[in-house]
From TrEMBL:
Transmembrane segments: none annotated. This is Cytochrome c-551. PANTHER family: CYTOCHROME C-553-LIKE, MENAQUINOL-CYTOCHROME C REDUCTASE CYTOCHROME B_C SUBUNIT. Pfam families: Cytochrome_CBB3. Coiled coil: none annotated. It comes from Paenibacillus glycanilyticus. Residues 1-23 form the signal peptide. Keywords: Electron transport, Heme, Iron, Metal-binding, Signal, Transport.
Amino acid sequence: MFAKNLFAAMLIALLLAACGNNGSSGSQISTSHMDAPEKTGAVYKANCVSCHGSDLQGRMGDQTNLQKVGARMTEPEIAEQIKHGGSSMPPFEDRLTDEQIASLAAWLASKQ
C-alpha cells in the first residue's frame, strides 16, 4: 500500500513539475510557435491571448478570430482598433506604447 501511495505521489510531483513555471510571470501559454517577432509575441501573449487565443483563433466568437485579419483590415485599421478599441474590444492606448501597437498591427496585417 505504501509503495502505491509513494508511486502516486511521485507521479503527481513529476506531472506538476512538467507544468511548472519557466521563470516568467503571467500566462503560461507559449507563443513561440507563432511567426511573430519575439517582442511582438510577448506583447500579444501579455495583452491579447485571453480574448484572441494562442493561435489567433479567437476565444469570444468569430469577431475575435485574427487568423486572417489582414484580409479584412488594413494595417492602419488594425492599429486604430488596438489603440481605441471598439465593439467588445477595450482600448489599449493607455497600456501599450505606439511602437508596440505598430508592431502588433504590422504582424497582424500579414495574416491573410
